[in-house]
Amino acid sequence: MHVQVTSDPAAFSRLVFPFLQKDPVLNTIILSNVRERAVGIRPADDVPPYFVSVHDPDVIGVAMRTQGRGVYLGSLRADLVDVVADQYLELYDGVASEGLYDEAVPGGVAGEAAAAQRFADRWCERRGGRAQEAMRTRLHKLITHTPLTAEAGTARLMRAEDADLITDWGQAGFPELRGSHDWAAQRLADETMWIWEVDGEPVSMVGYHMPIFGVCRVGPVYTPEMHRRRGYAGALTSRVTAEILAQSNLACLYTDLANPTSNKIYAQIGYEPVADFVVLEYTA
Protein backbone atom coordinates (compact mmCIF):
# COMPACT_ATOMS: atom_id res chain seq x y z
CA MET A 1 0.00 0.00 0.00
CA HIS A 2 1.27 3.48 -0.85
CA VAL A 3 0.05 7.07 -0.77
CA GLN A 4 0.20 9.72 -3.48
CA VAL A 5 -0.32 13.47 -3.11
CA THR A 6 -0.88 16.23 -5.67
CA SER A 7 -2.04 19.83 -5.82
CA ASP A 8 -3.22 19.40 -9.42
CA PRO A 9 -7.01 18.81 -9.47
CA ALA A 10 -7.00 17.72 -13.12
CA ALA A 11 -4.35 15.07 -12.48
CA PHE A 12 -6.16 13.97 -9.34
CA SER A 13 -9.47 13.62 -11.17
CA ARG A 14 -7.90 11.41 -13.82
CA LEU A 15 -6.37 9.25 -11.09
CA VAL A 16 -9.28 8.82 -8.67
CA PHE A 17 -12.55 9.46 -10.51
CA PRO A 18 -12.79 5.84 -11.74
CA PHE A 19 -12.81 4.85 -8.06
CA LEU A 20 -15.14 7.62 -6.87
CA GLN A 21 -17.70 7.13 -9.64
CA LYS A 22 -18.57 3.73 -8.18
CA ASP A 23 -20.74 5.68 -5.73
CA PRO A 24 -21.21 9.23 -7.03
CA VAL A 25 -23.75 10.11 -4.33
CA LEU A 26 -21.56 9.11 -1.39
CA ASN A 27 -18.55 10.80 -3.01
CA THR A 28 -20.37 13.92 -4.23
CA ILE A 29 -18.33 16.44 -2.20
CA ILE A 30 -14.92 15.34 -3.48
CA LEU A 31 -16.17 14.80 -7.03
CA SER A 32 -17.71 18.26 -7.38
CA ASN A 33 -14.93 20.09 -5.54
CA VAL A 34 -12.17 18.53 -7.63
CA ARG A 35 -14.05 18.84 -10.92
CA GLU A 36 -14.87 22.51 -10.38
CA ARG A 37 -11.22 23.22 -9.69
CA ALA A 38 -10.04 21.13 -12.63
CA VAL A 39 -12.23 22.96 -15.15
CA GLY A 40 -11.60 26.42 -13.67
CA ILE A 41 -15.05 27.08 -12.20
CA ARG A 42 -13.51 27.85 -8.83
CA PRO A 43 -10.86 30.60 -8.66
CA ALA A 44 -7.25 29.64 -8.02
CA ASP A 45 -6.43 29.09 -4.36
CA ASP A 46 -3.99 31.32 -2.52
CA VAL A 47 -3.05 28.29 -0.43
CA PRO A 48 -2.26 25.09 -2.39
CA PRO A 49 -4.83 22.31 -2.08
CA TYR A 50 -3.56 18.85 -1.23
CA PHE A 51 -5.33 15.84 -2.74
CA VAL A 52 -4.32 12.46 -1.33
CA SER A 53 -4.99 8.97 -2.66
CA VAL A 54 -4.26 5.55 -1.16
CA HIS A 55 -3.32 2.68 -3.52
CA ASP A 56 -3.17 -1.10 -3.10
CA PRO A 57 -2.28 -1.23 -5.98
CA ASP A 58 -5.40 0.51 -7.37
CA VAL A 59 -7.04 3.46 -5.61
CA ILE A 60 -8.82 2.35 -2.43
CA GLY A 61 -9.30 5.69 -0.66
CA VAL A 62 -9.06 9.46 -1.14
CA ALA A 63 -9.01 12.65 0.92
CA MET A 64 -8.56 16.34 0.23
CA ARG A 65 -7.76 19.61 1.90
CA THR A 66 -8.65 22.89 0.20
CA GLN A 67 -8.36 26.52 1.25
CA GLY A 68 -10.61 27.59 4.10
CA ARG A 69 -11.52 24.02 4.96
CA GLY A 70 -10.24 21.23 7.15
CA VAL A 71 -9.14 17.89 5.78
CA TYR A 72 -12.11 16.14 4.16
CA LEU A 73 -12.12 12.35 4.41
CA GLY A 74 -15.56 11.68 3.00
CA SER A 75 -16.22 7.95 3.23
CA LEU A 76 -12.57 6.99 3.75
CA ARG A 77 -12.30 3.67 5.55
CA ALA A 78 -11.18 3.97 9.16
CA ASP A 79 -8.34 1.49 8.62
CA LEU A 80 -6.81 3.84 6.01
CA VAL A 81 -6.90 6.92 8.23
CA ASP A 82 -3.45 6.56 9.79
CA VAL A 83 -1.56 6.64 6.50
CA VAL A 84 -3.63 9.59 5.29
CA ALA A 85 -3.16 11.49 8.57
CA ASP A 86 0.58 10.87 8.46
CA GLN A 87 0.71 12.25 4.93
CA TYR A 88 -1.06 15.46 5.95
CA LEU A 89 1.09 15.79 9.06
CA GLU A 90 4.15 15.57 6.82
CA LEU A 91 2.72 18.11 4.37
CA TYR A 92 2.17 20.63 7.15
CA ASP A 93 5.28 19.75 9.13
CA GLY A 94 7.11 22.86 10.23
CA VAL A 95 4.06 25.12 9.95
CA ALA A 96 3.80 26.13 13.59
CA SER A 97 0.29 26.92 14.69
CA GLU A 98 0.19 26.15 18.42
CA GLY A 99 -3.56 25.75 18.21
CA LEU A 100 -4.11 28.87 16.10
CA TYR A 101 -5.21 27.71 12.68
CA ASP A 102 -5.43 29.89 9.60
CA GLU A 103 -5.64 29.44 5.84
CA ALA A 104 -2.23 27.75 5.79
CA VAL A 105 -3.04 24.97 8.26
CA PRO A 106 -6.17 22.80 8.37
CA GLY A 107 -8.25 23.70 11.41
CA GLY A 108 -10.13 20.43 11.58
CA VAL A 109 -11.30 17.30 9.81
CA ALA A 110 -14.61 16.04 8.42
CA GLY A 111 -15.79 12.57 7.48
CA GLU A 112 -17.64 9.58 8.82
CA ALA A 113 -17.45 9.67 12.61
CA ALA A 114 -15.00 6.84 13.30
CA ALA A 115 -12.58 7.95 10.60
CA ALA A 116 -12.74 11.65 11.49
CA GLN A 117 -12.17 10.94 15.19
CA ARG A 118 -9.22 8.67 14.45
CA PHE A 119 -7.67 11.31 12.20
CA ALA A 120 -8.19 14.03 14.81
CA ASP A 121 -6.69 11.91 17.58
CA ARG A 122 -3.58 11.25 15.52
CA TRP A 123 -3.29 14.90 14.49
CA CYS A 124 -3.64 16.24 18.03
CA GLU A 125 -1.25 13.64 19.41
CA ARG A 126 1.45 14.96 17.07
CA ARG A 127 0.62 18.67 17.02
CA GLY A 128 -1.08 19.25 20.34
CA GLY A 129 -4.46 20.68 21.13
CA ARG A 130 -7.71 18.79 21.08
CA ALA A 131 -10.64 18.23 18.74
CA GLN A 132 -14.22 19.14 19.43
CA GLU A 133 -17.36 18.46 17.44
CA ALA A 134 -18.58 21.46 15.46
CA MET A 135 -21.35 19.91 13.36
CA ARG A 136 -23.03 16.69 12.35
CA THR A 137 -24.39 16.40 8.84
CA ARG A 138 -26.43 13.84 6.95
CA LEU A 139 -26.22 13.03 3.25
CA HIS A 140 -29.59 12.34 1.60
CA LYS A 141 -30.61 11.23 -1.87
CA LEU A 142 -33.96 11.77 -3.55
CA ILE A 143 -36.04 8.61 -3.78
CA THR A 144 -39.59 9.72 -4.71
CA HIS A 145 -40.22 13.39 -5.38
CA THR A 146 -43.16 15.12 -3.70
CA PRO A 147 -43.77 18.78 -4.71
CA LEU A 148 -44.04 21.33 -1.89
CA THR A 149 -45.68 24.73 -1.96
CA ALA A 150 -45.20 27.93 0.07
CA GLU A 151 -47.68 30.44 1.43
CA ALA A 152 -46.95 32.73 -1.53
CA GLY A 153 -44.61 33.26 -4.44
CA THR A 154 -43.12 31.44 -7.40
CA ALA A 155 -39.76 30.03 -8.49
CA ARG A 156 -37.64 31.44 -11.28
CA LEU A 157 -34.10 31.14 -12.58
CA MET A 158 -31.51 33.65 -11.44
CA ARG A 159 -31.10 36.63 -13.79
CA ALA A 160 -28.10 38.86 -14.44
CA GLU A 161 -29.51 41.63 -12.27
CA ASP A 162 -29.57 39.22 -9.31
CA ALA A 163 -25.79 38.71 -9.26
CA ASP A 164 -24.99 41.19 -6.49
CA LEU A 165 -27.84 39.97 -4.30
CA ILE A 166 -26.88 36.31 -4.74
CA THR A 167 -23.26 37.16 -3.96
CA ASP A 168 -24.32 38.95 -0.77
CA TRP A 169 -26.58 36.10 0.30
CA GLY A 170 -23.87 33.55 -0.38
CA GLN A 171 -21.32 35.43 1.67
CA ALA A 172 -23.83 35.94 4.49
CA GLY A 173 -24.72 32.27 4.73
CA PHE A 174 -21.52 30.46 3.82
CA PRO A 175 -18.13 31.53 5.26
CA GLU A 176 -16.18 29.81 2.49
CA LEU A 177 -17.77 32.17 -0.07
CA ARG A 178 -16.67 35.36 1.65
CA GLY A 179 -14.44 37.40 -0.59
CA SER A 180 -15.54 35.45 -3.67
CA HIS A 181 -17.54 37.18 -6.39
CA ASP A 182 -17.08 34.76 -9.28
CA TRP A 183 -19.25 31.91 -8.05
CA ALA A 184 -22.53 33.80 -8.55
CA ALA A 185 -21.57 34.63 -12.13
CA GLN A 186 -20.77 30.96 -12.72
CA ARG A 187 -24.16 29.91 -11.33
CA LEU A 188 -25.78 32.40 -13.70
CA ALA A 189 -23.86 31.02 -16.66
CA ASP A 190 -24.63 27.41 -15.73
CA GLU A 191 -28.31 28.18 -14.96
CA THR A 192 -27.99 26.36 -11.64
CA MET A 193 -29.30 29.03 -9.25
CA TRP A 194 -33.01 29.53 -8.59
CA ILE A 195 -34.84 32.26 -6.68
CA TRP A 196 -38.18 32.23 -4.88
CA GLU A 197 -39.91 35.53 -5.52
CA VAL A 198 -42.92 37.07 -3.74
CA ASP A 199 -44.58 40.10 -5.34
CA GLY A 200 -41.41 40.74 -7.34
CA GLU A 201 -39.10 40.50 -4.32
CA PRO A 202 -36.47 37.71 -4.08
CA VAL A 203 -36.86 35.98 -0.71
CA SER A 204 -34.85 32.75 -0.99
CA MET A 205 -32.23 31.06 -3.16
CA VAL A 206 -31.42 27.43 -3.92
CA GLY A 207 -28.63 26.31 -6.23
CA TYR A 208 -27.21 23.00 -7.33
CA HIS A 209 -23.94 21.65 -8.67
CA MET A 210 -23.55 20.53 -12.26
CA PRO A 211 -24.04 16.78 -12.73
CA ILE A 212 -21.10 14.44 -12.22
CA PHE A 213 -21.68 10.81 -13.16
CA GLY A 214 -25.40 11.56 -13.24
CA VAL A 215 -25.66 13.13 -9.78
CA CYS A 216 -26.40 16.77 -8.83
CA ARG A 217 -25.96 18.01 -5.28
CA VAL A 218 -28.42 20.67 -4.12
CA GLY A 219 -26.87 23.75 -2.49
CA PRO A 220 -26.37 26.41 -1.44
CA VAL A 221 -29.76 26.97 0.19
CA TYR A 222 -30.27 30.34 1.85
CA THR A 223 -33.18 32.46 3.06
CA PRO A 224 -32.60 35.78 4.87
CA GLU A 225 -33.83 35.79 8.47
CA MET A 226 -36.73 38.14 7.75
CA HIS A 227 -38.21 35.70 5.21
CA ARG A 228 -37.80 32.42 7.08
CA ARG A 229 -40.47 30.05 8.42
CA ARG A 230 -42.79 30.66 5.49
CA GLY A 231 -41.96 27.59 3.42
CA TYR A 232 -39.98 29.43 0.73
CA ALA A 233 -36.78 27.35 0.90
CA GLY A 234 -38.69 24.08 1.03
CA ALA A 235 -40.84 24.95 -1.97
CA LEU A 236 -37.82 26.16 -3.91
CA THR A 237 -35.74 23.09 -3.04
CA SER A 238 -38.62 20.98 -4.29
CA ARG A 239 -38.69 22.96 -7.54
CA VAL A 240 -34.92 22.69 -8.01
CA THR A 241 -35.13 18.96 -7.31
CA ALA A 242 -37.75 18.65 -10.05
CA GLU A 243 -35.40 20.49 -12.43
CA ILE A 244 -32.58 18.04 -11.65
CA LEU A 245 -34.88 15.07 -12.24
CA ALA A 246 -36.12 16.57 -15.50
CA GLN A 247 -32.52 16.49 -16.71
CA SER A 248 -32.44 12.73 -15.96
CA ASN A 249 -30.04 13.17 -13.03
CA LEU A 250 -30.16 11.97 -9.45
CA ALA A 251 -30.47 14.57 -6.68
CA CYS A 252 -28.74 14.58 -3.32
CA LEU A 253 -28.14 17.08 -0.53
CA TYR A 254 -26.62 17.53 2.92
CA THR A 255 -28.46 18.67 6.03
CA ASP A 256 -27.29 19.95 9.39
CA LEU A 257 -28.58 17.47 11.96
CA ALA A 258 -28.93 20.31 14.46
CA ASN A 259 -31.71 21.76 12.28
CA PRO A 260 -34.73 19.42 12.64
CA THR A 261 -36.96 21.74 10.61
CA SER A 262 -34.93 21.49 7.41
CA ASN A 263 -34.44 17.76 7.87
CA LYS A 264 -38.21 17.32 8.16
CA ILE A 265 -38.86 19.44 5.07
CA TYR A 266 -36.35 17.56 2.94
CA ALA A 267 -37.90 14.27 4.05
CA GLN A 268 -41.28 15.59 2.91
CA ILE A 269 -39.79 16.29 -0.53
CA GLY A 270 -38.65 12.68 -0.74
CA TYR A 271 -35.01 12.73 0.39
CA GLU A 272 -33.86 9.72 2.41
CA PRO A 273 -30.66 9.31 4.49
CA VAL A 274 -27.52 7.79 2.99
CA ALA A 275 -24.76 8.44 5.54
CA ASP A 276 -23.87 10.65 8.51
CA PHE A 277 -20.72 12.75 8.84
CA VAL A 278 -19.08 14.80 11.56
CA VAL A 279 -17.02 17.99 11.45
CA LEU A 280 -14.33 18.24 14.13
CA GLU A 281 -12.41 21.44 14.85
CA TYR A 282 -9.07 21.74 16.62
CA THR A 283 -8.60 24.00 19.61
CA ALA A 284 -5.58 24.78 21.78
Briefly summarize what is shown.
About 35% of the residues lie in helices and about 30% in strands. With about 280 residues, the chain is of the alpha+beta class. Helix 5 packs across helix 6 (about 180-190).
At CATH level 3, the topology of the largest domain is Aminopeptidase
Summarize the helix and strand pattern as letters: EHHEEEHEHEEHHEEEHEHE
Radius of gyration: 19 Å
In CATH terms, the superfamily of the largest domain is Gcn5-related N-acetyltransferase (GNAT)
Individual helix count: 8
N-C termini distance: 33 Å
Your description of this structure?
This protein is of the alpha+beta class. The protein folds into two domains: 2-128, 3-Layer(aba) Sandwich (Aminopeptidase), CATH 3.40.630; 142-275, Gcn5-related N-acetyltransferase (GNAT) (Aminopeptidase, 3-Layer(aba) Sandwich), CATH 3.40.630. The protein has helices at 9-20, 28-38, 81-91, 113-127, 163-173, 182-190, 232-246, 260-269, and strands spanning 2-6, 50-55, 59-65, 71-74, 108-111, 130-142, 154-157, 193-198, 201-208, 215-222, 250-256, 271-283. The protein has a twelve-stranded mixed beta sheet with strand order 1-2-3-4-5-12-6-11-10-9-8-7, with helices on both faces. β4, α3 (81-91) and β5 (108-111) form a beta-alpha-beta unit. α1 (9-20) packs antiparallel against α2 (28-38), α3 (81-91) packs across α4 (113-127) and α5 (163-173) crosses α6. It is globular and about 55 Å long. Mean pLDDT is 92; it is low at 97-101.
